[in-house]
Specification:
One of its GO terms (biological process) is proteolysis. Its cofactor is Zn(2+). It comes from Pontibacter cellulosilyticus. Keywords: Carboxypeptidase, Hydrolase, Metalloprotease, Protease, Signal, Zinc. It is a single chain. With about 850 residues, the chain is of the alpha/beta class. The chain folds into four domains: about 5-385, Aminopeptidase (3-Layer(aba) Sandwich); about 390-500, Alpha-Beta Plaits (2-Layer Sandwich), CATH 3.30.70; about 510-615, Alpha-Beta Plaits (2-Layer Sandwich); about 620-715 and about 730-855, Class I glutamine amidotransferase (GATase) domain (Rossmann fold). It is built from 25 helices and 37 strands. The strands form ten sheets. A seven-stranded mixed beta sheet has the order 2-3-6-4-7-9-8, sandwiched between helices. It has a seven-stranded mixed beta sheet with strand order 29-28-30-31-36-35-37, with helices on both faces. β22 and β23 form a beta hairpin.
C-alpha cells in the first residue's frame, strides 16, 4: 500500500469538520462483515463531513478522487476530458497492484474479445472481467456521485481475502461524475438552501431548484441521450475510454420521483431493441438476483422489468448492449435535497446513497461470480455479429453530399468515434440520380465486428413489437444529416469499391476560386457553415447581400438562390484586406468563395439587381427561464454559440416585459409556456419589423394570442367505446410521438429553404402539434408529404393528422414576420439536416416578402 497520511492530508487541505444536524456514520453504509484499513482516509477525513450530510460539489469530489489515487496502489486516475465549463472528467481504474503492473497488457488482451479473428484463442478462465461504474449523468440525481465516494473508499480500504480476490479477478472503472457541470449546479442549490435543522416539507425551496435545474450540462443537454450522437466533450471523452476498455458490465446510476422505491434492470422485455442479443437480457436478469438479495438484506424495496426500456441506443444503459456489454440502469427514489417527505415516510439523502452503494457492491459480486459468462458473452456477441454481417442483404452504406462536404464530414466523424471502419469510394459511382465520388462520399461496409451498431445507426425501422417508448423510436443518422445515402446490396457493392480507409476524418478544405477581385466575391449557401461565414463577415462590418434568384457566370457556373454577394467597394477594409479575410473565412468554413470580375452575368440576375437584397446582422434575443423547455432552448443556444459563433442574448421571460427591445431584430421562442410575457408588447415589436421564430408549444402561444395567422389542427372528439381501465395508460402512451422521422417537401425558391438542393427533407417530430395548411399558397415553404413516415413509430390517428400538414408557417404581422415551426430543427444537436431551416429563419426572415406570407386577420 502507498503511504497513507489521512489526518495530515486533511490538515493540509485546511478542511474542518462541519457541525450538522444529522450525523450519518460510515457504518450505516458499509458492509459489517468487512474490515477496513484504518490508515486509509475516510471521506470525512478528507472532505470534513460525513457522506450524505452535504451534497458533494464537483471540486470536492474531484479532490477526493485525486487524493485516493495518490494514496492507494489499487487506484490510478485519468482525466479523459473537460466539460464546457472546464471541469475535469475523471476515470479511476481500480484493481489489484499486480494487475496494475500489467494493466496495458490486460487491456489489450481484453479488447481481443471483440475481434472475431483473435478471440477464439483467448483463455477466458484467466482473464479479469471489466466493470464500469457510471454515476449521476443527471446532475440533480446526486446519490450516484455521492455513492462513488463510498465505492472508492471501500475498494481502497477493505481488507481480507474476498476483496483481494475481487481485485484480482476484475478491473473496475469508476466515473464518479458523468456530468460535473450539472452536479455542481445542483449541489450549490441544495446546500445553500439547507437548514441546520433539516426541513422535510416538500414545499421547501430546497426541493425546488431554479430553472434550468441541474439535470443537464452547461448547454442544458441531457447527456444520457448523447452516447450515440456524441455532440458534447463529456460524451466524446467517455466513449473513447469505453472503447479503450470494452467493459463487460456498465452501470448507470440515476434517480426518479420521491414517492418511488428503487428500480434495476432489465426493463420491460417487449421494449428491448431487436438488435440487442437475448442473452444480454438474460444476463441482466441473473445479475438482478444479486441486487435483490443485497437490497433485501438492508430492507429496501425495489422493482424490475417494469417502466423502463432498452430501445434507444443513445442511453448509457442501452449503448453497451449493442457493444457486447451488459448495461444496467439503476433508478433510486430521489430526496432532491437532504431529507424529504414521501408516501413511504421521510426519504433521507443518506438512504438514497446507501441503495446506490449497495447495488454497486452487488454488481461487483455478480460480475466476479459470472466473470466467465460475461467474457464469453462479449466474445460470442462479436462472433455472431460478424457472422450475421456476412449473411446480411446490406453489404455497405454510402453517404455524402456534393454541395456540402461539412455535413458528411461530421457524420463520418461520429461513426469513426464508435470504432466503425469508414472508407472513401475507390472511384466515382452512380446510384439512381446520385453520383458518389471519393471527394464527397464515405462508405461503411457492414462486414465488420461493429455490424450491430452500424445497423442501429442506419436502419429505418417502422414496425415494432411495442407501441410505447421511454425515449425516441428513430434516429437514422443519414436522415438526421439530410445526406444522400444508399444501402448497398451485393448487386451494387463489391469490396473492391472500397478506396482509402479513413484513419483520421479531416475537415474539408475551403478556398477562394480565382484571383483577387477588385469587384466582388460570392459564395453559395449550400455549405453547412455558410451561416457562420456570413456572421463572421457581419461581425467585421462587411456589407453583404443575398441573391433571391439564380444567376450564371461567364464560365457557365450557376449560382443558386441564397448566394451571398460581397462587394469590394464600399467596405470598411480595402481590397487586399478583404481578400485576406475571405481566405480565412473560406478555410474555416469549408467554402468555395468565388472571385467575380464583372457584375454582368450572362444568365439570371445581375449582381447589381434589386433582387440582390441587403442583409442586416441578426441581433438575437432568446427567451429562457421558467416555463421554457430547457432542452430545446439549450439546443438552439448551443448551435448558435458553440457551432456558429453567434451571440444570442439570453433573457428570462420575467424580464421580457421590462427591457428595451429595440436593439434586437430576432426573437427565438423555443418550446415552452409563455403566458407570463406581454402579448401586446410582442405584437408591437413584430409589427415594427422584427422576426419571431417560434418552435413547439411557442407556436401554440403565438396562435392563441393572435400573433400571426396560425391555425392548429384539432383532433377528433368523438365518443369511444368502453375499454378496460388497465389499458388506459398504455393506450394513451401509444398516441405519444416520442420521436420519429418524417418526409417533408421544400419550396426551394423560398428564403427559408435557401441552401437546400433537394426538395425532399427528413424532419424529426416529437409532439402532436399539427398545423393546418395556409390559404396562402406561399406561406408554407415546408409541408409534410402524403406518405410522410420514414422511420419510427406513430399511431394511425396521428399519421392521418400529420399527412399534408404544414411543417412551417410564415405570417406577416405589420412589417415583421412570425415563423412557426411545430418541430424542433435542432434536436439533440445531431439533426444537422434541419439546422439550416432554423438559421435561415434568423438570417433571412427579414427579407421574406410580406405578400408571400400569410397576413394576419384584420381583427388582429
Amino acid at each position: 500500500m502507498k503511504n497513507f497520511k489521512a489526518f495530515a492530508v486533511a490538515a493540509m487541505l485546511g478542511l474542518s469538520q462541519l457541525a450538522t444536524a444529522q450525523q450519518t456514520e460510515l457504518s450505516y453504509y458499509l458492509p459489517q462483515s468487512v474490515q477496513y484499513n484504518k490508515a486509509v482516509p475516510t471521506p470525512k477525513e478528507i472532505l470534513g463531513y460525513n457522506v450524505g450530510e452535504w451534497h458533494v460539489s464537483h471540486d470536492q469530489l474531484a479532490m477526493y478522487m485525486r487524493q485516493m489515487a495518490q494514496l492507494s496502489d489499487r487506484i490510478t486516475i485519468t482525466e479523459y476530458g473537460r466539460t464546457h465549463e472546464n471541469r475535469p472528467l475523471y476515470l479511476l481504474t481500480v484493481t489489484s497492484p499486480e494487475n496494475h503492473k500489467n494493466i496495458e497488457a490486460i487491456k489489450a488482451n481484453h479488447k481481443k474479445l471483440t475481434n472475431p479473428s483473435e478471440s477464439g484463442s483467448l483463455n477466458i478462465k484467466d482473464m479479469p472481467a471489466v466493470v464500469w461504474m457510471g454515476y449521476s449523468v443527471h446532475g440533480n440525481e446526486p446519490s450516484g456521485s455521492n455513492a462513488s465516494l463510498l465505492s472508492v473508499y471501500h475498494l481502497a480500504a477493505a481488507q481480507g481475502p474476498e476483496i483481494e480476490k475481487l481485485l484480482k479477478e476484475t478491473v473496475i472503472l469508476i466515473d464518479p461524475s458523468i456530468n460535473p457541470d450539472g452536479l455542481n449546479r445542483f449541489a450549490s442549490w441544495v446546500n445553500s438552501h439547507r437548514s441546520k435543522n433539516l426541513i422535510t416539507d416538500s414545499n421547501s425551496a430546497e426541493f425546488e431548484e431554479a430553472w434550468p435545474r441541474g439535470r443537464t450540462n452547461h448547454y442544458w443537454f441531457d447527456l444520457n441521450r448523447d452516447w450515440l450522437p456524441l455532440q458534447h466533450p463529456e460524451s466524446r471523452g467517455r466513449l473513447a475510454k469505453f472503447h479503450e476498455w470494452k467493459p463487460n458490465v456498465l452501470t448507470d446510476h440515476h434517480e426518479m420521483g420521491t414517492n418511488a422505491t428503487f428500480f434495476f434492470q432489465p426493463g420491460i422485455p417487449s421494449r428491448n431493441h431487436p438488435l440487442s442479443p437475448e442473452n444480454g437480457f438474460k444476463l441482466t436478469q441473473k445479475i438482478g438476483t444479486y441486487h435483490a438479495k443485497a437490497l433485501d438484506k438492508i430492507g429496501s424495496f425495489y422493482y424490475t422489468e417494469e417502466s423502463y426500456d432498452d430501445f434507444y441506443y443513445g442511453k448509457g444503459s442501452t449503448y453497451p448492449d449493442v457493444n457486447g456489454s451488459v448495461g444496467i440502469l439503476f433508478e433510486q427514489a430521489s430526496s432532491r435535497g437532504h431529507a424529504q417527505e414521501s408516501v413511504n415516510g421521510v426519504l433521507s439523502f443518506p438512504f438514497t446513497i446507501r441503495n446506490q452503494f449497495t447495488t454497486t457492491l452487488s454488481t461487483l459480486e455478480a460480475a466476479q461470480a459470472m466473470r466467465e459468462e460475461l467474457l464469453a458473452h462479449q466474445r460470442d456477441f462479436y462472433k455472431e455479429a460478424y457472422n450475421d454481417s456476412k449473411k446480411a442483404p446490406v453489404k455497405a452504406y454510402v453517404f455524402g453530399s456534393e454541395q456540402d462536404k461539412a455535413r458528411a464530414y461530421h457524420l463520418a466523424e461520429i461513426i469513426k468515434q464508435h470504432q466503425i471502419e469508414v472508407y472513401r469510394p475507390k472511384e466515382s459511382f452512380k446510384i439512381g440520380n446520385t453520383t458518389y465520388t471519393p471527394e464527397n462520399a464515405y462508405i461503411v461496409p457492414t462486414e465488420q465486428p461493429q455490424y450491430k451498431l452500424i445497423e442501429g445507426m442506419f436502419e429505418k425501422r417502422t414496425k415494432f413489437q411495442d407501441s410505447l417508448f421511454y425515449d425516441i423510436s428513430a434516429w437514422t443518422f443519414p436522415l438526421a444529416f439530410d445526406l444522400d445515402h444508399e444501402a448497398l446490396s451485393s448487386k451494387n457493392f463489391k469490396s473492391n469499391q472500397l478506396g482509402q480507409k479513413v484513419e483520421n476524418v479531416t475537415f474539408p478544405k475551403g478556398e477562394i476560386v480565382g484571383e483577387k477581385s477588385n469587384y466582388a466575391y460570392v459564395f453559395e449557401w449550400h455549405g453547412y457553415y455558410a451561416p457562420r461565414a456570413l456572421n463572421t463577415l457581419m461581425e467585421r462590418g462587411i456589407v453583404t447581400r443575398v441573391a433571391t434568384d439564380k444567376f450564371t457566370t461567364g464560365n457557365g457556373k450557376q449560382f443558386d438562390y441564397g448566394t451571398i454577394l460581397i462587394p469590394v467597394t464600399g467596405q470598411p477594409v480595402n481590397a487586399d484586406e478583404l481578400h485576406k479575410i475571405l481566405q480565412q473565412v473560406a478555410s474555416a468554413n469549408a467554402l468555395q468563395i468565388h472571385a467575380m470580375a464583372t457584375g454582368f452575368t450572362p444568365q439570371g440576375i445581375k449582381l447589381g439587381s434589386p433582387m440582390m437584397t441587403s442583409l442586416q446582422q441578426p441581433k438575437i434575443l432568446m427567451l429562457i427561464g421558467d416555463g421554457v423547455n430547457s432542452n430545446d432552448v439549450g439546443e438552439a443556444w448551443h448551435l448558435l454559440d458553440e457551432r456558429f459563433n453567434m451571440k444570442p442574448t439570453l433573457v428570462t421571460t420575467d424580464r421580457f416585459n421590462r427591457i428595451g427591445l429595440n436593439k434586437y431584430n430576432v426573437i427565438v421562442m423555443a418550446d415552452g409556456n409563455y403566458n407570463n410575457i406581454s402579448k401586446d408588447r410582442m405584437r408591437s415589436w413584430v409589427q415594427q419589423g422584427g422576426t419571431v421564430v417560434g418552435m413547439g408549444d411557442a407556436v401554440r402561444w403565438l396562435a392563441d394570442n393572435g400573433i400571426g395567422n396560425i391555425t392548429i389542427k384539432k383532433s377528433g372528439n368523438g365518443t369511444s367505446p368502453q375499454k378496460p381501465y388497465a389499458d388506459m395508460s398504455n393506450e394513451a402512451g401509444a398516441q405519444v410521438i416520442g420521436g420519429a422521422i418524417f418526409e417533408t417537401k421544400l419550396d426551394l425558391t423560398h428564403p427559408l429553404a435557401y441552401g437546400y438542393t433537394d426538395a425532399q427533407m427528413p424532419i424529426f417530430r416529437s409532439n402532436t402539434l399539427f398545423l393546418e395548411r395556409s390559404k396562402s399558397p406561399y406561406a408554407n415553404p415546408v409541408m409534410y408529404t402524403s406518405n410522410p413516415l420514414m422511420a419510427g413509430y406513430i399511431s394511425k390517428p396521428n399519421l392521418q393528422q400529420v399527412k399534408n400538414s404544414a411543417a412551417v408557417d410564415v405570417s406577416a404581422v405589420g412589417a415583421g414576420k412570425v415563423i412557426a415551426m411545430p418541430d424542433n430543427p435542432n434536436f439533440r444537436a445531431f439533426w444537422y439536416g434541419t439546422n439550416k431551416l432554423f438559421l435561415n429563419s434568423i438570417f433571412f426572415g427579414q427579407i421574406i416578402s410580406g405578400s408571400s406570407a400569410r397576413a394576419e386577420d384584420a381583427h388582429n
